[in-house]
User: Which sequence fits this backbone?
């Protein structure tokens, strides 16, 4: 049995390290293994170096580093097939949920929001990251890795922007802008210069790049980069001024139903304004106080709770009022207003449209006071 | 005859698990020698396949390890974890069934028959 010296052990260990085996665990495994072979097979007076170089060659095909690669491959891809399965399942699910959600939304059926949210969240946080992990193993060069990373990130940001846009969540503009900038200045250039290098992929690369630039450009034109003037809000403020003016310049209406309707209107307006600007009516100095009412969909606002109660009460009072008057010209006109709409159509209204509807009812009452009073008498 | 590495690749984990089940604790070189001895040199595990497999099995929690210092070098002993013991039996049974199926599929008459 050959006796290995400490120097020879160091020599082997250094050789293993030099050949690209970085994991200490594996280095020690291999060192012990080689020592065992040498001890068992080399004669006492044999040539260590010659024997070692013969033995080590049997460990690999091209280089020793293969062993470490193989170990890593086994560790990472332990779940390779499971991951691929999850990728396909989540991808199919997201696509199906997105199509269904879009149809539901177009038809104003319940459940659209849930389906779209689910589709986008699954895409963002399961499908795309998994796609990145799996694909990252296949690409070789640094540039391709960057392209893949920026592409995945662009995809995630794009999907999140869509989610924020359809749910009317704040911060959508900044998300869109980040998506466009990342796509235009990072992803597309990387994609183009990676693809153009391969002669056989040149044509496809050019076509896809043009399409990507087109899509990104189109997206950019649709982003509201600067906040638009709140025109709808100004219109509503004007209506309120007009109402005040009318109420001040005509005789007091003592019709108890009219008083009741006005009260309901004020309550409903307050309930819609408080979440937006914190107060129950728009003050005169709203501009200097930076108060802005942004247009919002009424989805769910009148579905239940206090708002629904207030709206129902207002509807009932208006119906009573109209019923009490035989002259139909004096009836409060509510056609095409939020008072006239079935529940599933109300969500097509914006908050400002509803506020305008209500103030119009009050204006009609203020204008028809004398007539009503006369009629009631 | 030495079996091809392709044939051994699919059964390597099972072989390693079974060796450790029968021998309590072993180190890498010992496993290769034991397999060689038991199969009269027909199966020769390569280092390039054995160590990645050992590392993968360890990462899966099927093996526990012990370190022993031998002079300047370190020897890593592997043994089955409780999980590994169950897995070992499962894989041996699976392979036995697989061999039966292969016999049938390839229409191999057993030597005794």
Assistant:
């Amino acid at each position: 049995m050959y006796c290995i010296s400490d120097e020879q052990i160091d020599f082997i260990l250094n050789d293993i390290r030099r050949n690209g085996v970085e994991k200490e665990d594996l280095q020690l495994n291999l060192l012990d293994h080689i020592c065992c072979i040498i001890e068992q097979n080399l004669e006492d007076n044999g040539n260590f170096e010659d024997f070692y170089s013969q033995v080590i060659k049997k460990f690999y095909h091209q280089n020793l580093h293969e062993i470490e690669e193989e170990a890593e491959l086994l560790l990472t891809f332990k779940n390779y097939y499971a991951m691929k399965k999850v990728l396909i399942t989540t991808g199919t699910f997201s696509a199906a949920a997105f199509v269904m959600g879009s149809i539901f939304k177009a038809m104003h059926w319940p459940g659209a929001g849930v389906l779209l949210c689910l589709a986008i969240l699954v895409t963002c946080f399961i499908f795309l990251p998994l796609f990145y992990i799996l694909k990252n193993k296949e690409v070789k060069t640094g540039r391709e890795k960057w392209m893949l990373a920026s592409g995945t990130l662009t995809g995630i940001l794009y999907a999140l922007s869509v989610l924020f846009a359809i749910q009317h969540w704040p911060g959508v503009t900044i998300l869109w802008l980040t998506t466009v900038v990342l796509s235009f200045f990072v992803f597309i250039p990387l994609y183009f210069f990676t693809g153009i290098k391969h002669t056989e992929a040149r044509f496809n690369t050019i076509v896809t790049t043009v399409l990507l630039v087109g899509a990104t450009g189109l997206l950019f034109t649709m982003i509201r980069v600067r906040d638009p003037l709140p025109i709808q809000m100004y219109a509503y403020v004007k209506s309120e001024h007009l109402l005040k003016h009318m109420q001040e310049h005509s005789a007091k209406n003592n019709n108890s139903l009219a008083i009741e309707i006005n009260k309901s209107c004020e309550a409903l307006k307050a309930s819609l304004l408080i979440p937006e600007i914190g107060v129950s009516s728009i003050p005169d100095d709203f501009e200097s106080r930076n108060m802005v009412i942004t247009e919002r969909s009424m989805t769910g606002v009148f579905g239940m709770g206090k708002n629904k109660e207030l709206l129902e009460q207002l509807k009932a009072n208006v119906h009573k009022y109209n019923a009490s008057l035989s002259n139909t010209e004096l009836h409060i006109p509510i056609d095409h207003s939020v008072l006239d709409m079935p529940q599933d159509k109300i969500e097509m209204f914006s908050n400002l449209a509803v506020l305008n509807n209500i103030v119009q009812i009050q204006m009609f009452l203020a204008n028809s006071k004398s007539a009503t009073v006369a009629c009631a008498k | 005859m030495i079996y091809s590495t392709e044939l051994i690749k699919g059964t390597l984990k099972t072989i390693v698990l079974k060796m450790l089940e029968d021998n309590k604790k072993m180190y890498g070189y010992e496993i290769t020698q034991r397999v060689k001895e038991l199969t009269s040199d027909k199966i020769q595990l390569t280092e390039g396949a054995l160590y990645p497999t050992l590392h993968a099995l360890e990462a899966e929690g099927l093996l526990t390890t012990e370190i022993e210092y031998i002079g300047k070098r370190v020897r890593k002993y592997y043994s089955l974890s409780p999980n590994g013991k169950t897995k070992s039996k499962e894989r041996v049974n699976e392979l036995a069934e697989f061999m039966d199926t292969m016999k049938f599929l390839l229409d191999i008459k057993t030597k005794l028959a």
In short: The two ends of chain A are 126 Å apart (CA to CA).
